[in-house]
Amino acid sequence: MTFRATILTLYPEMFPGPLGHSLAGRALREDRWALETVQIRDFATDKHRSVDDTPAGGGAGMVLRADVLAAAVDSVADDRPVLAMTPRGRPLTQPRVREIAAGPGVTVLCGRFEGFDERLFEARGIEQVSIGDYILSGGEMGALVLLDACVRLLPGVMGAASSGVEESFESGLLEYPQYTRPAEWEGRTIPEVLRSGDHAKIAKWRHARACEDTRSRRPDLWERHEGVRVGRPLARGDD
Ligand code: SAH
User: Fold this and answer.
1) Which of 35, 136, 137, 190 minimizes the number of CB atoms within 10 Å of its CB?
2) Closest ligand 1 atom, CA of 131?
3) Which of 152, 175, 194 is the C-terminal boundary of a domain?
């Protein structure tokens, strides 16, 4: 079964963009996943083909209309989850990416301007997703981020099958730091243990560094990791 991505956007020419290159691009050409875009404007009904209108209650900018967006969503209705890119959504995490990648695919709605008419989400059972606590000018970059994260997990896409397992976040920790040749560069050396050939010692060092770096760089992740380890119930919104 091929993973199918459908992107609803005002800028279909932005796809596949970066996903046409490297691992994702090769996988696309090998039909390991499929990409389709839908022009939201094709579902406008007035003679100006408008997709947006001024915000109810006043304020700057324009809001994407629920009726036009719903018609676009309905045109692709199937068994795949429908996600909308919005900074008001639930932050995207590796566990959610894994779930999506394990399914039949995804439909992604890309916002522009001030975003979507809120009524759309409940009316169509749309999952609201954020890619981080900053504001983009449109959802297209978010959709590319989501798809890149999913596609690299599809069977046969990543060369060494194991390289996804130890990655940052997969264990709830950041990955340990990596090094490669030359052994000495600008007077800096690779940690001695990594050149020892002692695999048990290396594994122990890597785990210790993963813990240390997670604790100092990402206290939020560390707190959650420790909570899971000692069996403390997760706070709401965690998973
Ligand atoms: N006024 C909105 C932001 C609109 S930005 C607000 O403050 O919530 C325009 C579009 O860019 C959004 O509709 C969304 O599709 C996309 N976008 C911006 N930031 C995003 C983020 N962090 N995650 C996902 N999508 C984002």
Assistant:
1) 137
2) 23
3) 152
Q: Which of 135, 141, 144, 146 maximizes ligand 1 atoms within 8 Å of its Cβ, making it the mutation to test the pocket?
A: 135
Give the closest residue to 68 by CA, choosing from 129, 128, 124, 21.
124
**Residue 102 identity:** A
- Asked whether 62 lines ligand 1 (CB < 6 A), one says no
pLDDT by residue (tens digit) across 94-139? 999 999 999 999 999 999 999 999 999 999 999 999 999 999 999 9
Do residues 106 and 177 both lie within one domain?
A: no
Residue 167 pLDDT? 84
Instruction: Please write the tens of the pLDDT for every residue from 17-29.
Output: 999 999 999 999 9
Contact predicate 43/10, CB 8 Å: no
Distances (CA, A) of 104 to 2, 80, 96: 7, 6, 14
**What total of structural domains would you count in the chain?**
2
Pair 207, 145 in one domain? no
pLDDT in the model for residue 163:
57
Domain that holds residue 181: 166-238
Model-level pTM? 0.94
Chain centroid offset of residue 91 CA: 9
Say which CATH number the domain at 198 has: 1.10.1270.20
Asked whether residue 159 is domain-assigned, the answer is: no
